[in-house]
Design brief:
Mean pLDDT of chain A: 92
Number of helices of chain A: 12
CATH superfamily of the domain at 88-291 in chain A: HybD-like
CATH class of the domain at 88-291 in chain A: Alpha Beta
Shape of chain A: globular
Largest interface: A-B, 36 and 37 residues
Low-confidence stretches of chain A: none
Oligomer: homotetramer
Number of strands of chain A: 9
Radius of gyration of chain A: 19 Å
Order of helices and strands of chain A: HEEHEHEHHEHHEEHEHHEHH
Chain lengths: 292, 292, 292, 292
């Protein structure tokens, strides 16, 4: 099967008939439509090809076309995140992906705008008017080819050391449909599924591998070329066709030409939504100023 | 017609029967095959869809896969460039494209490794052991959306000021075939054709717009998604299909997942070949050291 | 004389007695103090060591310490710029300096946040709701060592091509006092003086070299080590001392350790002030969104 | 006492009489002079202000002035490293510092050129002709202000997970003398001392905190402004003078104006020396190619 998607909402489209163990509902925040899919049991997980958990998908105005920062979208994302992120305890935020490859750089770029606060304590915090902040640690672990380590190994090692209550991972995703690139944000409490992501295929990063809740936030930034080919022709490419689409076995990806605008706006949007969810003692405007 | 290519060798493949006004020959340097196509008259230009001029295409080992710098390929490119670049006078090298978009960043990244020497004169040059260098100026003019100016306007303005004997432009290209991404270098004395390039479509930059020879060097780094779709189906996409491939009119591009490796190696290869062609008083090893 | 400063207000401090041909006044915008020095004739120019013109200096809260974007400071700068920038005609904004050296990167980083609008015309502008914008072109010309060209040559060449009504140059400056690093913005209609700036010493860029008004905006980001030494000892360093401060003739500079925060905030502040002065049809909030 | 230095060789200069517990010898490799200081006991540690261990200091041609990569220096460093790095077992290389601040970016930039090999195993390695490589993991952990975590915590967490035989940390250093900036490489088996480094002052990272050998490699890239002031005047600055040198308590640093060239060349030199020491099955030229 050549349709590759990291989005639960697209997996659902591909199997609309499989209702068992999959529940869904919709919500609206002004112009933002939110779809909440819950995989409630193993049957649902098998039919959807996604682990048990909540999958919240927000449809937002296209990030590569719209005229700037969308505070309405940020607020909608933040409110939905409130349901996924544990209320108490330290949080470790990890921006996954390769900062040197534009469509894979969402995680590192978002991480660079997450307010790291774990070290701001005691007198320092008071003097800066920053007491009452939730303790947040931030990491951009890089990718396997740069580090020789699986991202999950790095996060597990650090989590064992600093013992956060939960991990939030931010990652660029692959979608089935080109129309969803930069128009969709997926938030889930099921972590990172094996094989997802843009650059290196990820190993699983989840509560079952780390022992603590893993909230994953992603934006689709690529469609795999083989998925597009399948979609256009409606059938598996034969081996000759496949060698045209992936010459010498090279993976090919499809992205908008304005991918850099898409990535920097997605990073700004998601980091702001996460900061708002984590730091309730500061207003959105104060948070925006602190990271600028 | 939905096949978009900046490569003369691919335009030739699409119209193999149109022999009038188009001549071609092959050469070999070790493992490197070089194809030289010459468009000799207007008939050839119309049939090929490329202006009159020489188009030299080198087939090189895949930049995103091979294990490092390929000095054999660099030497082959340098020797072919010797035939295109005027022997005397100052040279202006311009790296076209957007440094923030990986597949469009070939030009700026190559420009950052071109040895700028125009200011190294007199005693300074002698003291540094660098007298006898050819005078070279280097520019990364950015793209229309960043500057509000056409790249050709910027180059024309600077060329009018510093009066080089020729301009060398380095640019990322679009090809017809995915298999050519990162495996091909095109060098031409016909400059930049209207509508070529990856990011913003370029306006013409050539001897007829600048009044001096314009040598263009490019590597294909993307295939347009519409070209891939045409290629797969063998027919024009209808409007429904088109709106799937280019949702909301967004241009979509296909690149290798290892595009960052491809770009940095292509930039190193081309800048070294240009440096070797321009600075005959230094050895390839000395030049490599000076830019590291 | 070993005191090096690009600030008129510091030149004035060094020669407080020389009142001839130099006028000054103060203004306040909330917490922001603005000092306006006018060099009215050649006598003033000689005594101050700065060309005839207006020098507006705003004292702002320390950029490397304050907790984020300071919209009060931005508004004060914007209002003062209104007096310096011609009301009509196209504007060329040039961000001087080397993007790879943090204390010299103010110009390029500010330029990347200036709204380029010269190409947004006709139907495109209307569709984007952006008709009525002032036409602005933007450039980051790099430095002599990268390009082989004087910055002034590049700007002159482009200005001759696109014929703006005025040029605005943004540059990092050297100051006499460490306490002014990141706490001062200087705006002048006298352009760039010979020998000013952080990285390469600039050649003059002014109305007399370009034929059109040149407004220069700068923030001190470094103190030269020899200036600090002179200041500490109150006398010229002898040759032995000098060879300790500038071993092998290497220029040494003093900067805050938080220089990266200083630079990115200064770039955000100045670009926003310039955007507000140039685009009166948009609100500060709309402008902030368009560049984010 | 206001003299701040991370170099054992400078601590030795400051206390030449304290011979107890400190041994030293010299060696030469062509133009490169190497000084080996060994702190043999607690008395030596107290007198030198450096922990017990070997401190190897190589005097190399100035990185910001010399004309390119210095393979003689690389070979000398690599040979000295052979004595410090354990012969067997996995190695974790960590590039300390802030990639956004030029003088503090040595660690991250060197790390990006260290060959990560831990994941290249089995068939993959054989196919790539890379079997027989030593297993190396690489990390750029960022700084406290970005992550909210001490660098030592991050390294400890990951080391506990992947269990390397030793850690190599690469870091920018502060020196006493301006003449040593970019002319000196220090290699030690005593790890990172508390308070060393350029940006954030480091906590100790050593065998006693990690339980495995920690080899630290550093190049001085800054002199603290207070150290320069002390050196010039020969006495502690009084509080008025201090408030001029560190206005509002801001730490000020002195660097060469050509700091970006210094950093990129130091990163290339040190990463190559480390790669050569770690990967004996590949030649220096093969290693150079693999990271380009």
């Amino acid at each position: 099967m050549n349709i590759r998607t990291d989005l639960a909402v697209e997996a659902r489209e591909l199997h609309p008939e499989d209702a068992q163990g999959v529940e869904s509902e919709e919500a609206r925040y002004g112009n933002i439509t939110v779809s909440r899919i819950t995989v409630t049991n193993e049957a649902g997980a098998v039919s959807l090809g996604k682990p048990i958990g909540k999958y919240i998908t927000a449809d937002i105005p296209p990030l590569s076309e719209d005229a700037g920062f969308d505070s309405e979208a940020a607020e909608a994302l933040s409110r939905e995140l409130d349901d996924l992120i544990p209320k108490d305890g330290d949080i470790l935020v990890a921006g996954l992906g390769n900062n040197d490859i534009t469509p894979d750089a969402l995680g590192p770029k978002a991480a660079s705008r997450i307010l790291a606060t774990r070290h701001i304590t005691g007198e320092t915090a008071k003097l800066a008017g920053l007491d009452g902040l939730r303790r947040v640690a931030v990491l951009a672990p890089g990718v396997l080819g740069q580090t020789g380590m699986e991202t999950g190994e790095i996060i597990a090692g650090i989590a064992a050391k600093i013992k956060p209550a939960a991990v939030i991972v931010i990652d660029a995703l692959a979608s089935h449909r080109l129309k969803r690139l930069g128009c969709t944000v997926q938030m889930t409490d099921s972590g990172i599924s094996p094989g997802s992501g843009v650059g290196n295929n990820r190993k699983e990063i989840s509560k079952s591998t780390l022992g603590i809740p893993v909230i994953a936030i992603g934006v689709p930034t690529v469609v795999e070329a083989t998925t597009l080919a399948y979609d256009i022709t409606g059938s598996e490419p034969d081996s000759e066709r496949l060698s045209e689409i992936e010459p010498r076995g090279s993976k090919m990806i499809v992205t908008p030409r304005e991918i850099d605008t898409l990535i920097s706006r997605a990073a700004a949007l998601i980091s702001h939504a996460v900061n708002c969810s984590l730091q309730k003692s500061l207003s959105p405007d104060e948070l925006m100023m602190l990271v600028s």
